[in-house]
Structure formats: C-alpha cells, structure tokens
Amino acid sequence: MDRLTYSTLRVREQGSVLFAQIHRPEAGNAINATLVHELDDVVTRAARAEHTTVVVLEGLPEVFCFGADFGVISDAARTGRDTSFDPEPMYELFRHMAYADVLTVAHVRGKANAGGVGLVAACDVVIADESASFSLSELLFGLIPAVVLPYLIRRTGFQRAHYLAATTQTIDARQAHEWGLVDALGTPSEALLKRHLQRLGRLSKKGVTRYKAYLRELSPLTGHTKDVALATNRQVFGDPDNVRAIRRYAEEGVFPWETATPDATVTPVPDPPPQPSPSETTVEPQHQRPAAAPQPPALSPRALGSAHFRAAHGVDYAYAAGAMYKGIASVGLVTALGNAGMLGFFGTGGLPLDEIDDAITRIRKGLAPGRAFGMNLLNNPADPALEARTVELYLRHGVRSVEASAYLHPTLPLVHYRLAGLGTDAEGRLRQDHHIVAKVSRTEVAEHFLRPAPEPLVRRLLDDGLITPEQAALGARLPLAQDLCVEADSAGHTDGGNAYVLMPAMRALRDRVTREQGYADGAAVRVGAAGGIGTPEAALAALTLGADFLVTGSINQCTVEAGTSDAVKDLLQGLGVHDTEYAPAGDMFEVGARVQAVRKSTFFPARAQKLYELYVRHDSLDDLDPRTRTTLENKYFKRSLDEVWEETRAHLAHRFPDRLAEVERSPKQKMAHVFRWYFVHSTRLALRGADQRVDYQIHCGPALGAFNTWVRGTDLEPWRGRRVDVIAERLLRETAALLTERLAAYGVLAAGGTPPSSDPTPGAAPGGPAPLATAE
C-alpha cells in the first residue's frame, strides 16, 4: 500500500491485514462522495498489493455508519445547486468489496443504517458486537435502498431484505445473525475479530485471488441488476418532494409525517425510527424563536471550507498553517497540527538541504499513521539548482503537499513536482499524488497556476526523462496548482493587498480560466485565504468571501512549538493590531520588495528603510558621508563596514563563487550585499534571542495583535499556554459557533423578528474563546 492518508478514513496496516475505520464523527459516520471514493481506493489498492489479503472495515464504537449524508443534500438544495448525485460509485464500491482480490471483513459495533447496511452486506465476512443494530430507513423519506438491496438479498434472501426495507424496522445483532446478515456474533467483538484474523492470516495472496475470481463467476448480480438499481436511485433522489423532506429533516429535525412546533424543533414520537442521517440529534428548545425561522443545527468546525481540500490533502479540517522560514514553522509545529487532523507546512526558507532532509524524517516519525504534512517550496532565482535539488528530495521522500512561495512564473522544478505525481488507477481514474498550494497576491501570477504547466517546460522534462508521456498528457488537462492561497496583509513578503478586493477577483479569475480551459468537473482550483486571520470574525469573513480553506501564519509564531526564541515570543505576546509595519526585504533588497514586520520595541523597520534609501541615493559605500558611515557601524552593524564586507565576501566565495568577481567589480552591488548583511544579522539575533532586541527582524502581521486581544483574560493569553493545535481547534470551533449564530440571526430577520442581542454575557471575557471542552 502506497497511500495511507485519507480524510474520511483512519487506515493502518498490520501484517497482511489492512484496517480501515470510517471516521466522520462530526457527521455521524455518514457516507459522502469522498468516503465512497476513498474506501474504494483502499479496497482497490489492497487488492493490488502483493501481501495484503484482508481489509477490515470498522466504524466508531457507537455507530458503524448511518448512511447517506443528508446534510450535503440539504446544503445543495438551500444554495440552489444540483441535489442529485451519481449512485454508480457506491454500487461499484459494493461490487469491489464483494469481489475484489482481497477478503473484506466488516466489524460492526453500534448502528448500521441504510448505506451502512450496504457496506456490511457487501463484505465477505461480518463480525458484530451485541451492541450492533441494523435498519433501512429510506422509505420514511420516499427513498428506496436500491443500491443496497442487491447485496443484502445476496446475504439474507429476498423476503428478509424486503421486510427490512418495507417496515424500516430496526433489528438487533442477534436477529441479524439468525438472518445471515451477520456471520459471527460476540461480546467483546474485538476478541472474536482477532480469532478470525488469525485464521484468515494463514491464507496466501495467490489463494485469495483465485478464490475471489471464482466467486465473481458465481455472482448472481447481473448488468441488468446494476442498471435498475442506478436508475431507481437517481429517480428517488431527484424527486423534489423527497429533496424537500430531506432538507426539512436536516435543517429542522422534523420527519415527513411530523408537524413543527414553535418551541421545539423535534416533535417527540413514541418509537422513533432509526436515524437515516447524522443530522438526527435532539435539539434543545429555542426561546423566542418564530416557527418560520428554526434554529439552525450547530455547525461542526470540520464542516467549514471545502471537503475537496480535506480529501486532497488527507486532513479533517480545511485549515493549514503556512510555512515560516528558518524552521520557525518547526517539526514540532507541523507534527502537532498533523496529528490534530490539520495541515502544517514546514518552513524550509534559509535552511540547507541536509536539515530539510532530517526535518522530513523527524516529521514522519512524529506523525500518527495516515496523518498529513506539507513542506515549503521556494522559488530561488539566485540558485535554481537548489530548487531542483529540493524537489528531488521531496520526490524521494514522497512529500504529497507543498506550499509554493515567491513564484512569479512557473519553473522547471515546480512543474516536475506537479507532473511526477500524476497517473491513473486500475479503473482508469485520475490520480493526483502531488498537491501544490500556490501563495499568490497578484492576479497575473495566479493565472500561471490556474492554467496547465507551460508546454516548453513539459517538453524539457520529457526530453530529460523526468516524466512520462502519460504524465505530460494528463498535465495538459489540469491546472498547475490545485489550490491558490490568496495572501492579503500577511506577515513577511506581501503586497499589502485587501482581502475584500483580492478574494472576489481571484475567484472570478479562477472561474474564467476554468471555463476557458474546459477543465473537467472537479478540476477547478480551490481558493483559500491567508493574512489577517487571527479571530473567529476574521475567519468567518474569509469564508463568507468564498475561501475554500484558511491559512494562518502570525498567530502560530507565538506558540510553544514555533522555532524561534522565547525573547521573540515574549515580545509577540504583547503586540496590538497597530504594532507592525512594512519594511524593505533583505532577499530582494535591490528591487524594493517589502515585508511586514514587528515595529514595537524594535528599530528594524526604520533601519531597514534607511539602508534602502541610502542604496537608492548612492552608488557605492565610498559615497557615504563620515557621519552616516559612523552611524551604520556603531548602531546598525556593531562592526566596521569593512568587516561586514569580508564576512560577506567569504559567504559568496563559498556559496556563489562564480558571482563573486562580478560583485567585486560593481561598487553598487558590493554596497547592496553589505546592506543585506544587516537583514541576515537581524534575523539571527531574533532566532537566538540575543541582547540586541532593537534590531530583531520578526516577520508578523496584524492578525497576531487581533488574536492577542481576542484571548485576553483566557488560558491562551500567555504564550506558554498556546499550542498550535489548540489555537487552531479553538479558532475553528468559535468560527463555526459564530456562523451558526449569524445564520440564526438572519433567519429571525427573514421571519420578521428581532435578532438576539450580541452583547457579551455579563462577567464573561469580551470576545474570549470558549473552552475546548464545550460540546459541539
């Protein structure tokens, strides 16, 4: 198995057995398109694997699988999108589970309903705990378990499957065992499963393959069965009455035969039917709520943003922490986020390859199986060979996600990374194993990433044998990057753009290029937001602007895991929203590029600006007047300019010997390199926490000041209490709560009522985050 990272599954290997746990607790382990695709991928890859003979499918202890995710259908109906979905992938998943060259075992605890019963029925062996229950609830909503029934009939016979579907009655594990849906029953079921796996583990891959091939020949399921099942499924899910019933249930908790009451969302019934979707939860009465504007269900933070982003990167949340150079986005930071189901990008800027190599190894060691991480990939016009070697390192380590930074146009290594991850699976479906998150702040740069890789670069890679013709052909039909991260007023390098302007412009550009290129469904680039995100209000604003994912930066620099000094964190902890400023950038000093950095308690922005002004006005160091030279040597550099030049010269001789002679011949270039030394020096001072605090160069945006205000008076006020995963989870949790609150307020307004007051609760910390222990 070469892929163990999924967004809806927890996958682990144990010898010849592959365990796949359905893990959508925020949605009651319901089935969505991503789950179908990912589980099919697991079965397909296990069937092809040389030594894998068994796949064990499990759910959560309380629920195996509730069936279709009604929330997805409801959301589509509410926003005017197509509510229908293609049932064929589900049917094919069941077929693969039943007949692929691997033995499938369902380990069922808790509730299995609707499509969840289909997953069980399709397996070769079913082991159940006595807590398990089984039901088909589709007819309650006018639906038909059309895709499930062929596989259920195969196990139980026609009449028992018909009885379950027609009565929508729940049967317990013992009844399911008597009817043949369950093969073995016991408590605890884990011990029973272990005994079965001991026997199944004795089987060879060749024997299993031949046996399953024989079963395929005996299959009672015909092509006609499939055609009827798919046609029926499409008909019932396309019925507007059924869609209205689903939406009403998902949004109000009201069954089709019930009447909503003004004071309670759910009308009690003596014997409620089994849950057909994860949305069926008891809702507390909402005081002063008009009947026409029911309280929306509390949103899960996992539901924010794009499900496609989560699936592509193998994470639980549409959230990432951007790379901060010199390893400030550290190994510890990346692993903490990864283990929490989020994406962290390691900060490779300014680090040698051996340190990056070591960092990848340590990240992988620190991550739980199946957890995701990303690496920074920097454009390096001064040393393009370094960029190429970095990509080679990533390919060797199998790095799946990179944050592409400082690119003005595509480069050969960047295109190499993208195309080398393209391929097709056994069924001919596109596989994209390498994911690029392109950081952009200008539309002309973004367009390069929205279009396919430039043909001349693709041809060079083909000529050099670095990609295959198939990869070149696939790349011609796909955008260079799958994700755009739109930066606005962020830390470090930034154009200082306004998110309210940039996000709509980038989305409009994305839509135009998608139409022009004729990309297939699902190939449209996701657009995320970065910069200024330090509070739930800011995160919600980004999502309202259409962000598919969120990227934070500055707030992560002031955490326990951040790879910078305690002195820097002490300073950052006290920042306000006006304590940052734009200053010249050291790495692009000559062209006047700018970074956003801390100005509170430091002279760095002012001194950096002074150096740039001197560079613009003078042609050489010899042109500086004596007073200015003395100021630079005594206050800025703490050493003579000659000493600075000698240190700089030694660096050039070691790293760029071919360039040294050119620099020495040009007094202007020599002055630029001497002035750039200050930028390197000021960064080192900050990372070490040296005494010269006034010269610290700390890249930071105003988001941290807003965050500091938000957490004032809470456990997150001192930085030693700030852990990067805790910050992320709390930010997302409060964003989801805020969105729920706003939707409720708008619902009341739409019904002609008065929205609730947004004044803080007396005695509460204004704007403070709720504790993580608060139930969703």
Concise overview:
With 776 residues, the protein is of the alpha/beta class.
Descriptors:
776 residues, alpha/beta, eight-stranded parallel barrel, six-stranded mixed beta sheet, 30 helices, 13% strand, disordered C terminus
Explained architecture:
By secondary structure, the chain is α/β, with parallel strands linked by helices. The strands form 6 sheets. An 8-stranded parallel beta barrel has the order 13-14-15-16-19-20-22-23, surrounded by 6 helices. Strands 1-2-4-7-9-12 form a 6-stranded mixed β-sheet, with helices on both faces. The longest helix has 27 residues, at 724-750. The radius of gyration is 29 Å and the shape is elongated. 47% of the residues are buried.
Largest sheet: 8 strands, parallel, barrel
- Regions with little confidence, pLDDT below 50 for 5+ residues: 260-293, 756-776
Helix fraction, binned, reads: 40-55%
Can you tell me the overall shape?
Answer: elongated
* Structure summary, number of beta strands: 25
Rg result:
29 Å
